[in-house]
Amino acid sequence: MKKIFVLTALYAMVILMSLQSAYAQTDSGQKQFAKTKVGEVEIITLVDNSSEFDISIFDGDKTLREQLSSGKKLPASINAFLVKKGDSLILVDTGIGKQLLENIKAAGFQPEQINAIILTHTHGDHTGGLLQNSQAAFPNATLWLSQKELAYWQSQNLRYADLCKKMYNGLKFIVQDEKTPLIIPEMTAIAIEGHTPGHTALLIRSQNEGAILIGDLLHSVTLQFAYPDICANFDADKPKAIAARKKLLKLAADEKLLIAGAHIPFPAFGKVKIQGDGFQFAPAPLKNP
């Protein structure tokens, strides 16, 4: 067992070094955005804030967590994403509103150009950038989320939810059936209840290529790919979160889909393979738009 721990810890270190290398190549030490393409659809990672998670927020075997983390902190990120196809410029999540606007502009866009916002879910690190000075930060955007997630949002933070709804002139509901086109023909929504009741993943398919924006399906590259039964304290329903994590990662592995996550360290893109009872994550090279 100790040998397994050591090998897994070494693998985790290699992954983190690969992510850091990709970050250096893409970011050039300045703005934090990264662009890639899936068929005809452009996907852009926008870092809102670099962060770390303390290992104490994760459950599971303490020895395992300590072996994999090599300390008390795990690298993470708070990412949002732009999905661009033709005249559609879709923002997926809004972070806490720290560096998002700056990095949208650095990527070559203005907030006024964004015509849709999709919330994978409504925790504060995904909705905090919706408003600026109590006004819509993206004044020409329509707000989308699942109906179950709206109910959850209102139960947790009614005042902010209603203010956002007002500032964005209402909202539209996502159909999480994996087949109804969402804003653009290439994108559909997948229900991944567990982290929150209305949590949504976005599946993009174009020209025989595919990607999944996984929201908060996981919070640690180091822990939760290899050990998908490990949950963070943020997961509202842990058994459902585990089931969703395993199902979606298996889909990504089986179909060789690119994945991008809100808390995967920048640039956040990678591929997944099945490994034993878990999965192996490897950063994916970026495809220039």
Which descriptors would you attach to this protein?
globular; alpha/beta; six-stranded mixed sheet; 15 strands; seven-stranded mixed sheet; about 290 residues; Metallo-beta-lactamase, Chain A; single chain
Q: What's the mean pLDDT score?
A: 89
Total number of helices: 7
Low-confidence stretches: 1-29
Percent range for helical residues?
25-40%
The portion of residues forming beta strands comes to 25-35%
**What is the count of distinct domains?**
1
Q: In this structure, how is the largest beta sheet organized?
A: 7 strands, mixed
Q: What is the alpha-carbon Rg in Å?
A: 18 Å
Q: Give me the CATH superfamily.
A: Ribonuclease Z/Hydroxyacylglutathione hydrolase-like
Terminal-residue CA separation: 45 Å
Order of helices and strands: HEEHEEHEHEEEHEEEEHHEEE
Strand order of the largest sheet: 1-2-3-4-5-8-9
Structural class: alpha/beta
Shape verdict = globular
Task: Give your account of this protein's structure.
The chain is α/β, with parallel strands linked by helices. The chain starts with a helix and ends in a 6-residue tail after the last strand. It has a single domain, classed as Ribonuclease Z/Hydroxyacylglutathione hydrolase-like (Metallo-beta-lactamase, Chain A). 30% of the residues lie in helices and 29% in strands. The N terminus is likely disordered.
